[in-house]
Amino acid sequence: MASIINQEIPEFSADAYVNGEFKTITSEDVKGNWAIFLFYPADFTFVCPTELEDMAAHYDELKGLGVEVYSVSTDTHFTHKAWHDSSDAIGKVQYPMIGDPTGKITRGFNVMIEEAGLAERGTFLVDPDGLIQVAEIHAGGIGRSAKDMLRKVKAAQYVRENDGEVCPAAWEAGQETLKPSLDLVGKI
């Protein structure tokens, strides 16, 4: 699989369910802000609602950092509304739930399970230029952590705003960063 880090997100236009309304969202709408794309296999399943609810619990903090979240599955926006209306967990979701029944967006991020017509559990952090900065794919039975993605958002934003600095493993906001240089080689 070729790396998609620093690659531009694919062009798309899709219908989404957002806070009681249907809305068209395009790749151009995403640019200019930070974004998380949270791909999941299907509505009305088991691990998926726990992940979307977990992300909903961190949504206000993410919005405060200038990040929009987009959940994406190959279901329709109509199915997203039905799930939102019938599930206590999904009822907490305020971020856009994009329907991708043709699989164009899912294929564009290279997370389509072709034989099933479903998305892998793919998570992507996109910078304001529309470039992918984090890409993760989990097996179907392994749920993701919004808290860890929040940490990665803060690290990516720090690196973007502080040229020449990098964030070490498990870095949290406020901790020391590294400034790679010849003097640092072999001293970590």
TrEMBL record:
<feature type="domain" description="Thioredoxin">
    <location>
        <begin position="3"/>
        <end position="158"/>
    </location>
</feature>
<dbReference type="InterPro" id="IPR013766">
    <property type="entry name" value="Thioredoxin_domain"/>
</dbReference>
<dbReference type="InterPro" id="IPR050217">
    <property type="entry name" value="Peroxiredoxin"/>
</dbReference>
<comment type="function">
    <text>Thiol-specific peroxidase that catalyzes the reduction of hydrogen peroxide and organic hydroperoxides to water and alcohols, respectively. Plays a role in cell protection against oxidative stress by detoxifying peroxides.</text>
</comment>
<dbReference type="InterPro" id="IPR017559">
    <property type="entry name" value="AhpC"/>
</dbReference>
<dbReference type="Pfam" id="PF00578">
    <property type="entry name" value="AhpC-TSA"/>
</dbReference>
<keyword id="KW-0963">Cytoplasm</keyword>
<keyword id="KW-0049">Antioxidant</keyword>
<dbReference type="GO" id="GO:0102039">
    <property type="term" value="F:NADH-dependent peroxiredoxin activity"/>
</dbReference>
<comment type="subunit">
    <text>Homodimer; disulfide-linked, upon oxidation. 5 homodimers assemble to form a ring-like decamer.</text>
</comment>
<keyword id="KW-0575">Peroxidase</keyword>
<dbReference type="GO" id="GO:0045454">
    <property type="term" value="P:cell redox homeostasis"/>
</dbReference>
<comment type="similarity">
    <text>Belongs to the peroxiredoxin family. AhpC/Prx1 subfamily.</text>
</comment>
<dbReference type="GO" id="GO:0033554">
    <property type="term" value="P:cellular response to stress"/>
</dbReference>
<dbReference type="InterPro" id="IPR036249">
    <property type="entry name" value="Thioredoxin-like_sf"/>
</dbReference>
<keyword id="KW-0676">Redox-active center</keyword>
<dbReference type="GO" id="GO:0005829">
    <property type="term" value="C:cytosol"/>
</dbReference>
<dbReference type="GO" id="GO:0006979">
    <property type="term" value="P:response to oxidative stress"/>
</dbReference>
<keyword id="KW-1015">Disulfide bond</keyword>
<dbReference type="Pfam" id="PF10417">
    <property type="entry name" value="1-cysPrx_C"/>
</dbReference>
<feature type="active site" description="Cysteine sulfenic acid (-SOH) intermediate; for peroxidase activity">
    <location>
        <position position="48"/>
    </location>
</feature>
<keyword id="KW-0560">Oxidoreductase</keyword>
<dbReference type="GO" id="GO:0008379">
    <property type="term" value="F:thioredoxin peroxidase activity"/>
</dbReference>
<dbReference type="InterPro" id="IPR024706">
    <property type="entry name" value="Peroxiredoxin_AhpC-typ"/>
</dbReference>
<dbReference type="InterPro" id="IPR019479">
    <property type="entry name" value="Peroxiredoxin_C"/>
</dbReference>
<dbReference type="GO" id="GO:0042744">
    <property type="term" value="P:hydrogen peroxide catabolic process"/>
</dbReference>
<protein>
    <recommendedName>
        <fullName>Alkyl hydroperoxide reductase C</fullName>
        <ecNumber>1.11.1.26</ecNumber>
    </recommendedName>
</protein>
<dbReference type="InterPro" id="IPR000866">
    <property type="entry name" value="AhpC/TSA"/>
</dbReference>
